[in-house]
Write a structure and sequence with these properties.
This protein is mainly α. It has one domain. The chain has eight helices and two strands. The longest helix is centred in the last third of the chain and has 16 residues. The chain starts with 12 loop residues before the first helix and ends with a helix.
C-alpha cells in the first residue's frame, strides 16, 4: 500500500491500476467515484433536467443558460458547437418548456465535456457515459433520461457501432 509521503511518480502504471482496483474492492468505490476524484470534469449536468418534452441537447442548453448563467458563446465553446446553434436550440427549448429545472443533491451528474466529440449524438454520449462509467442497466438509464428502455438499448448499440467504425 502507498503512504502519503511517497510520490506517485515512483509507481508504475500497473501498480497504480492495481491500487485503484484494491480501493474498488475493499472500500466499494465505484469507477464513477474514482473518476470524479481523478479528472477535472468542469461543469456537471444533473440527470434530473432531462425531460420528455425537450431533446437532451435542448435540456442541456437551457440548464447551462438558466442555471449556470453561461452566455451562448461560453456554452458553444464547452460543447464545441457554433454560437448560432446554441441560440437556436435554446430558443426552441424556451418555447417548449417554461419551468425552471429543480436539481436534486443526490442526482447522477454528467460532465459537459463528454459532448465535445461530434462523432456521437448528445443522447448517444449520455447513454454511453451512464452505461460505461456508472455501470447502470438500460432500464436505470431509461428512468434517468425519461426515455423508453428499447430506445436506450438502440442508442447505446448505435453509439458502439459509430465508435468502432
Amino acid at each position: 500500500m502507498m503512504s502519503k509521503e511517497q510520490g506517485l511518480e515512483q509507481y508504475s502504471k500497473q501498480q497504480l491500476i492495481d491500487f485503484v482496483q484494491q480501493l474498488q474492492q475493499r472500500k466499494k468505490i465505484s469507477p464513477a467515484e474514482i473518476e470524479q476524484f481523478t479528472i477535472d470534469q468542469g461543469i456537471l449536468i444533473p440527470c434530473c433536467i432531462f425531460d420528455t418534452v425537450l431533446s437532451p441537447f435542448e435540456s442541456i442548453c437551457a440548464y447551462l443558460k438558466e442555471q449556470q448563467r453561461l452566455t451562448y458563446h461560453e456554452i458553444a465553446q464547452l460543447v464545441k458547437r457554433d454560437d448560432r446553434t446554441i441560440w437556436t436550440v435554446y430558443q426552441h427549448a424556451v418555447k417548449k418548456h417554461k419551468q425552471k429545472f429543480i436539481v436534486k443533491k443526490d442526482d447522477v451528474f454528467i460532465p459537459v465535456k463528454i459532448l465535445q466529440d461530434r462523432r456521437l449524438s448528445v443522447l448517444e454520449h449520455l447513454v454511453r457515459y451512464l452505461k460505461d462509467f456508472y455501470t447502470l442497466t438500460y432500464h436505470q438509464i431509461a428512468v434517468l433520461l425519461k426515455r423508453d428502455d428499447r430506445t436506450i438499448w438502440t442508442v447505446y448499440q448505435r453509439g458502439l457501432r459509430k465508435v468502432k467504425a
